[in-house]
């Protein structure tokens, strides 16, 4: 079992444990009248999680320029962009599809192998930015698109080992999962 697969299993286990703990706590202790203040506290925590991201920075490994993953094919993204989807518009203005999965595998083999082993590679499409230079530089770094600036936009994303935000992920992943689980549970219990 490789390191990434171990990470996936430990992340799933961690989330399951957090979800159970939060479900027990919320269902036994929280009343409907508490919900608004709990959601406000969670918003504060969420802001703190993303403020902590500012302590870390991109180290220019180029991995996210060389491998972007989407559940949508290039044609689907083009249709979404035509229909006004801002993310899709930015995405297709930056990335082009890899010819095949073997090209993508050269960039982040552990990730692709993990998707394959989980059988989750069927509806996943792999892209790259043709602008990134051989020494992993963005030719227009100061004006890079917003989705490039935002990567990684959450701490539960799989990150290559080389990513400068891996330490941020390690620092806040559990709190982020806790918030995420609480929102799901509150929504289920009180907004039926
Ligand atoms: S535009 Fe620049 S930062 Fe964005 S993917 Fe391309 S090379 Fe990387
Ligand atoms: S994977 Fe992380 S460190 Fe590497 S280029 Fe992207 S944001 Fe920067």
Description of the molecule:
- With 192 residues, this protein is mainly α.
- 58% of the residues lie in helices and 5% in strands.
- It has a domain at 1-7 and 62-151.
- The chain has nine helices and three strands, in the order H-H-H-E-H-H-E-H-H-E-H-H.
- Strands 1-3-2 form a three-stranded antiparallel β-sheet.
- The longest helix has 27 residues, at 3-29.
- It is globular, with a radius of gyration of 19 Å.
- The relative contact order is 0.19.
- The structure holds iron/sulfur cluster (2 copies).
Throw out a few tags for this protein:
192 residues, binds iron/sulfur cluster, globular, 5% strand, 3-stranded antiparallel beta sheet, mainly alpha
Residues in β-strands, percent: under 5%
Helix content: 55-70%
* Overall pLDDT level: 89
Radius of gyration: 19 Å
Cofactors and ligands present? iron/sulfur cluster
Write the layout of secondary structure elements.
Layout: H1 3-29, H2 35-53, H3 63-66, E1 68-70, H4 74-82, H5 86-94, E2 96-97, H6 101-105, H7 109-117, E3 125-128, H8 146-150, H9 166-190
Helix pairs in contact: 1-9, 2-9, 4-5
Give the gist of this structure.
This protein has nine helices and three strands. With 192 residues, it is mostly helical. A three-stranded antiparallel sheet has the order 1-3-2.
